[in-house]
Design brief:
By secondary structure, the chain is mainly β. Helix content is 5%, strand content 49%. The chain has two helices and 44 strands. The strands form eleven sheets. Strands 9, 10, 11, 12 and 13 form a five-stranded antiparallel beta sheet that branches.
């Protein structure tokens, strides 16, 4: 009897351990309405009918109180939102910080963010012209005044319409170009300061020879941050990285703003198409159209220079759960983070939909999933696969429809994660690779 009980206990433990390995969607919380944000995948917009709009983390922690008439993060830096006050006329907007603090002193017709450090409140005035700057409620409006704010110092000054349209933020400084093409740099208190900027499209850093030294210098401080480079890109990538060219090496590389080498300059190397998820394309030996990938975090080459393109499901990511979708001569496949091929390039680009780390192929009404790890799964009973979105899941989870016309979720190997209960594919809205909103009211995590 004791042996039987022990065996039953062992079998139960094995079953539970097997079940623990299976992925499932777990309900985290619900609200009257939940919507994704445009610029932030760590939080969502939440509405409760008896309270108002607010912002919450994916775990349900409120970071911006549910007290606003409306909230939007369109054209905002990540984490920031614009709150609109109902029935206050054309001037109804104010900027809210990620912590929920009101950052503007009054209501404005629009809020503009140059950067996380610099933002502006736009005051409007009615115009009889049909060519105004803004249009609302059948009325045209022109920009009358633009109040300038610095994150640490609050409202520090104002710009005219023309100045505001030609303003560029550089860290703690704001560059303004007037109609006469005069360039003026302002510090964090909006005090004019000297600089070597000649136009508003000049890069913050430039290459020059000073005495016997060739180096990279700051247009703002004059400080030399590196030596030995003859060219520098006009753009600062991710806030602290510069592409630089070395004549001795005869190629491009990458440094940080302290001059530390992130990617060594190499002969005939050029870089293209920086992506938000840390990878940058490169060509070598003048073979434009044949690309590889560097990892800017490690400074290492992750994919050799052998492919025509790298495919993306959302126009922002190259790395999908550790894999890269690659194309050469119209054929697609996958490589891993070591550059090793995991799915041979045997699929015609026109015959598959790349959703991230999964490709979908349809053949006479039968759908198959080609996972980046090489597993191929035929989907039984599936009549349609949603291939026009859900990029935030990175292709690990896919919406599919059964013969009854209902939608569910499967993983990249075809395992059912959410049963067929949804009437529309749009009822699943992924926020990141594992969190999704169901029916605009329920927040789930796939565990």
């Amino acid at each position: 009897m004791k042996k039987l009980v022990a065996m039953i206990a062992l079998l139960l433990a094995l079953l539970l351990s097997c079940g623990a390995l299976a992925e499932t969607a777990v309900l985290l919380w619900e609200a009257d309405q939940i919507n994704p944000l445009y610029s932030d995948t760590t939080r969502v917009k939440v509405y409760m009918q008896d309270q108002g709009y607010g912002i919450a983390t994916l775990a349900g922690e409120v970071t911006v109180n549910l007290e606003h008439d409306s909230l939007s993060d369109i054209n905002c830096m990540p984490g920031y939102v614009i709150s609109a006050v109902r029935n206050s006329g054309i001037h109804d907007s104010r900027l809210i910080s990620p912590e929920g603090d009101v950052l503007t002193e009054e209501l404005y017709g629009d809020i503009i963010m140059f950067s996380q450090t610099w933002y502006a409140g736009v005051m409007l005035t009615e115009t009889a012209s049909d060519d105004g700057d803004y249009y609302s409620g059948g009325q045209e409006y022109l920009i009358d005044r633009v109040d300038i704010y610095h994150a640490a110092n609050g409202k520090v000054g104002a710009l005219t319409r023309d100045q505001y349209l030609r303003a560029v933020a550089y860290g703690d400084h704001l560059l303004v170009l007037d109609r006469e093409s005069n360039v003026q740099l302002y510090d964090s208190k909006f005090t004019p300061v000297e600089s070597t900027f000649k136009t508003s499209v000049d890069g913050e850093y430039y290459s020059a020879s000073k005495g016997l030294t060739r180096g990279i210098f700051s247009r703002i401080t004059g400080e030399q941050i590196a030596t030995g480079y003859s060219k520098v890109s006009s753009e600062v990538y991710n806030g602290n990285r510069l592409l630089v060219y070395s004549e001795p090496a005869q190629g491009w590389g990458m440094i940080d703003l302290q001059g530390n080498v992130l990617i060594p300059c190499a002969k005939d190397v050029e870089f293209y198409d920086l992506r938000a998820d840390r990878y940058i394309k490169f060509t070598q030996n003048g073979t434009y159209g044949i690309f590889g990938l560097y990892d800017m975090e490690t400074g290492k080459q992750v994919v050799p220079c052998e492919y025509n393109s790298f495919l993306s499901a959302d126009y922002e990511h190259y790395n999908f759960c550790g894999y890269f979708a690659v194309e050469k001569d119209g054929m697609v496949g996958y490589v891993d983070e070591n550059g090793a091929v995991t799915v041979a390039l045997t699929y015609d680009e026109d015959d598959v939909d790349v959703l991230g780390c999964t490709m979908v192929k349809e053949d006479n009404g039968v759908y198959s999933l080609i996972a980046a790890d090489g597993v191929i799964t035929a989907l039984e009973g599936v009549t349609e696969v949603y291939t026009n979105g859900n990029g935030a899941s990175l292709g690990r989870y896919i919406a599919v429809k059964n013969a009854d016309g209902l939608w569910g979720l499967v993983d990249w190997h075809g395992n059912l994660i959410v049963d067929y209960t949804a009437r529309y594919d749009s009822q699943f809205r992924f926020i990141d690779a594992t969190h999704f909103i169901y029916d605009s009211k329920f927040m789930y995590e796939i565990q």
